[in-house]
Amino acid sequence: MAIQIRNKRKAEFSMASMSDLVFLLLIFFMLTSTIVAPNAIKLLLPQSNSKTLAKQTVTVYINAQYQYYVGSKRVSELQLQNIIDEKLAGHLDGSVVLKSDKSVPVQYVVNVIDAVNNINKKYNTKHKVIFATRPRK
Known about the structure:
The chain is an alpha/beta fold. It is 34% helix and 18% strand.
């Protein structure tokens, strides 16, 4: 008399769990990619036809609320020159890229230029200010 096994093993593979896993990974990567923002400060740059590329040493932002940022750190107008001076330490001819919202009055832009010029006079360096723009449509 032959003994038969009631529960037979199947050699099939269920793809249902695999598709669930793929959808969960897809949702995870979609959520994490929207969290990462390369530009933390939203600016609407003025338009220009010129294309000047330079090595960035320091980036200064001025947003629509007239707030200064050096890198991603918010600074006051009084701290601006000292913070830029710290970032440019050790560079003789660094460049400060100025990214300003197009609604910002010119005086705020001039404040950044004056800060860099004061640093140049103080240390006899040749730092320059480059005003960032976006291409014309």
